[in-house]
Amino acid sequence: MAGFRILIIEDDPEHADLIKMGFRRHDEFFLDFAASGEEGLKMIAATAYDLISVDLVLPGIGGLDVLVRIRKLDPDIPVVMVSGHGTTEMAVVAFENRATKYVVKSLESFKSLPYVFENLIQEARFKGNERAMRGQIERSERIHRNIVENALAGIYILQEGAFRLANPKLGEIFGCSAESLLGLPFWQLVKPDDMQCVSRLQRDLLSDIPVYESKVQRKDGTCRWIEFRTVPIEYEGKRAILGNLLDITARKELEIGIMQTNRELAAIDGIMQTCLPSSVDMDKKLTDALAHLIAGVGGVQVGGVFLQEESGLVLRALHGSVEELIEFINGMELGLLLVLPRVHKCETGSPHSWMSAPIRCGGEAKGAVVVACADAYCLNFLEKAAGRIGHLLDVCDQNKMRLPSEELLAEIKTSTAPG
Fold it and tell me: End-to-end distance of the chain based on CA atoms, in angstroms?
């Protein structure tokens, strides 16, 4: 057992001897004695004690004044007030000045002091440990709160489907305050229909905590790409989900842009490849070129290649519904299709964005490419693809000019026949 360091402030030598006798069989106690309040205060300033016993009546500085000064130095150390007169009034005054215990002097009380002191010291140590642990917990909570509130990721706790904790970054990602999320059901913020492309990232297949990415719609109607992970936890005695979430919109848009660029390059290359086989007829070449164009745009519902002939614009290659394409053409001033690439406003209530780009061959508009898709972001690519189809027409015209006529072939055969 660890030793206990005790200071006894007692001016009566006989009482001091009686106290010593009570501790004879308790080797775990180390007693120091002071005969006055002044001497005791000096010893307290120089030595760390586990408990202090103060006689109520002392020469010079009285016991209550000593108690007050001790409490200024150490508010938690056990202080036992000892008095030869056990009046209720004096006990009340002692406790009002924060005495730990009040003991009336007697032979029996002196014998019991080791047990009283030990209990008080153990209780004080327990309370000290409890305060220290509580202080550590509070410091830990402050640190964690600071980390959570200043994190670059959105951090949240869901319990019974509702937000119990949300940091400011989470509110920023979803376009609202963190406080407004508390108590809000998760699916009221992010509806199931708004969650698109939920997929586990391949790079984290071996991780114990899977990582997902998704496209979500915010309250203001804008969309953001998020990357998130969740783990089950216990929160305030109940099952909950801890999640952290990153806004990866900028990264995802770059990835989508790279994928789109690669798709467009592959499509342009495919269109150029259709120029090579001279034996394939024009309609087959145009059909193949349109197929590559559709692959480069992505999400095209309807598409067609029109070439200008004497009767007007004639459909030479088709993708999707011919009825929708004809309905669009019938309500369109055809001259607009041959001037500039453009996005057309449709009054038919079509859910698609209609776009067109002229096909130029030999510096003249020879036709147009028309497509309908969900987004109108691909107009620049459509113009490039239409330019490659125009190059395809140039190549075909040149091949026709290079083919020898039947009369020329007959002359060649005659001149080369044996005489």
Answer: 134
User: 36 and 83 share a domain?
Assistant: yes
Same domain assignment for residues 116 and 168: no
What range defines the domain where residue 73 resides?
4-142
Separation in Å, CA 340 to CA 108, 186, 391? 112, 47, 17
How far apart are alpha carbons 324 and 310 in whole angstroms? 24
Query: Tell me: the pLDDT tens digits for 96-147?
Result: 999 999 999 888 888 899 999 999 999 999 998 988 888 888 888 888 788 8
| CATH number of the domain residue 308 falls in | 3.30.450.40
DSSP state of 86: -
pTM of the shown model? 0.54
Residue 226 lies in a domain: yes
Identify whether 149 is part of a domain: no
Please report the sign of the dihedral spanned by the C-alpha atoms of residue 171, residue 172, residue 174, residue 180: positive
Please report the beta strands in 132-251, taking only residues with DSSP state E, as ranges in sequence order. 154-159, 162-166, 196-200, 212-217, 223-235, 238-247
Within this chain, do residues 228 and 123 fall inside the same structural domain, yes or no?
Answer: no
Q: Which tokens in the block code for residue 10?
A: 């007692």
**One domain for residues 201 and 105:** no
In this prediction, residue 405 carries a pLDDT of 47
pLDDT tens-place string over residues 18-34:
999 989 888 899 999 99
**Which letter does DSSP use for residue 91 in this model?**
H
Instruction: Quick: pLDDT tens for 377-407.
Output: 788 899 999 999 998 888 877 766 554 444 4
Which tokens hold the place of 356? Answer: 């067109």
Taking the C-alpha atoms of residue 97 and residue 64, their distance in angstroms, rounded to an integer, is 7
